[in-house]
Amino acid sequence: MTYCVAMRLAEGLVFASDSRTNAGFDQISTFRKMHTFRQAGERELVLLSAGNLATSQSVISLLERRAGTDAPNVLGTSSMFETAELVGQTIREVIQRDNPDGKISNVDFSCSLILGGQIQGEQPRLFNIYPEGNFIEATEETPFFQIGESKYGKPILDRVVSYSTPLDRAYQCALISFDSTMKSNLSVGMPLDVAIYRRDNLQPCFTERVDESSPYFHDLRQQWHEGLRGLFNQLTPPALGPG
Amino acid sequence: MTYCVAMRLAEGLVFASDSRTNAGFDQISTFRKMHTFRQAGERELVLLSAGNLATSQSVISLLERRAGTDAPNVLGTSSMFETAELVGQTIREVIQRDNPDGKISNVDFSCSLILGGQIQGEQPRLFNIYPEGNFIEATEETPFFQIGESKYGKPILDRVVSYSTPLDRAYQCALISFDSTMKSNLSVGMPLDVAIYRRDNLQPCFTERVDESSPYFHDLRQQWHEGLRGLFNQLTPPALGPG
Lengths: 243, 243
Description:
By secondary structure, chain A is of the alpha+beta class.
């Protein structure tokens, strides 16, 4: 599996993804699930992928190969909306290539993508692109999207993240969301890729690769774990009647 | 969906279940998912159910109808292990009745059960019974089982619950686990049924129905939510480099 989360906030965009890929428990590898497309001063795009690795790699490869050519491509679109349409079409193209008759198979060819970024003249935007190629856009009321193994890490996002959350706090929350997920599910694993885009910057995101040796993440995990247990123990437990 | 959790701890057993059943979003009802079978001084059994409601209701009905008769029944077994076998057989019997040829269908006939309790002469025991009728038993290393919509509420259990957790703290943790689940997933809903069994008591569990008006749960949710946000804000956020 995979876990990716992205947020569209007043100050900009936050992206985070794990890097564990597994085809069965005995076939585990590390693959980057975060990809960027950029033209400094003009556009900065980030794609996160989950699902079938063959499909998502092909989608990324096709988007990269076509970038800057005469074909419709992610560096030639005039809006984020158009970019999301293009990415959705590319998903459909790859799935059509690999499973042309749409046969029901033991293999799930589907992949989900999150696309975020900014193109000059627009606000930063964030899209959740489904395996069918259609998509939804984040709003102020719903400022984050998750793909992959998303349930373990959702409660803390629901509690903490709103459109007005500052970028550094949003990054902190994403790390805690990953910590909860990795504690409960083996199929999501380090290292993590993080990208932070500051609104209207139109320059490369701040990026970071977080692994076991990252002192900040190490301390955060420990403080969060101990803090949670402390908070838990400090609340009054329920009274148990007879029985 | 459904969410149920049960724990086997040094002091005894804790059970909790929600009561929301849905067949589509426009068909939501409240059904109790916790059922008890008892003979005071001799045995106390609790069953939690998730999955197809027709299947789980039939399983419970058959177990109830046969209880105390000459047929193999949950009041006549000589061990919790034998009781788990009997419940597993009853699941197979009902699924065989409703889908005799094992046809692949749009309907998922399966149900999962958690069985816990104590029979005189044995320790308290806890079983997770799969739709196929086979089962696993909780150990000191793995003191809790969840069925249904289990992922949202798993991180807090992983962090807090161990075999030595006192019953009242375990109950508190179960409530927080439900709170996280209900905040993130509409298909799990109040009221909650809780049962606490104290080891070697062999008398009816302490039971409670927790709903929106329960002052303890109301305060716990609020204190936990505010405490979590306070803890979050008190930790140092990560430094963001240029970008």
